[in-house]
Amino acid sequence: MKSNKPKGKTPSLIGSTLGKPRKGLVERESHCKRCDAVISKGIECYEIPQLGGSFSSYKRYCDTCFRSILVQTQADLDAILRTVS
């Protein structure tokens, strides 16, 4: 039985291994990388590329998890600005 509880610490978009996120249309049933929720065919989701090789693979996230990633990214940016000021 799968749990819809997010796994681990909320990731941030600040990092050298992540590319530019994009909004994509799911072509076949998929699962959110973070909470394992089902993302049905035809639904829009958010894809974050995992760079590092000659090909990039995209990890899919549901709307709720992607919003939490954006909140974490903003918190990281705020922390950086506080240290610079």
Write structural notes for this entry.
The chain has 85 residues and is α+β, with helices and mostly antiparallel strands. The protein has one domain. The protein is built from 1 helix and 5 strands; from the N terminus they run βββββα. The strands form 2 sheets. A 3-stranded antiparallel β-sheet has the order 1-4-5. The radius of gyration is 14 Å and the shape is globular.
SSE map:
Layout: E1 22-25, E2 30-31, E3 38-39, E4 44-50, E5 57-61, H1 63-84
Antiparallel strand pairs: 1-4, 2-3, 4-5
Strand content: 15-25%
DSSP summary: helix tally = 1
Provide mean pLDDT, rounded: 85
List how many beta strands DSSP finds.
5
Distance between the termini: 48 Å
Question: In what order do the strands lie side by side in the largest sheet?
Answer: 1-4-5
Order of helices and strands: EEEEEH
Short descriptors:
85 residues, alpha+beta, three-stranded antiparallel sheet, two-stranded antiparallel sheet, 1 helix
Short description:
By secondary structure, this protein is of the alpha+beta class. The chain has one domain (22-84).
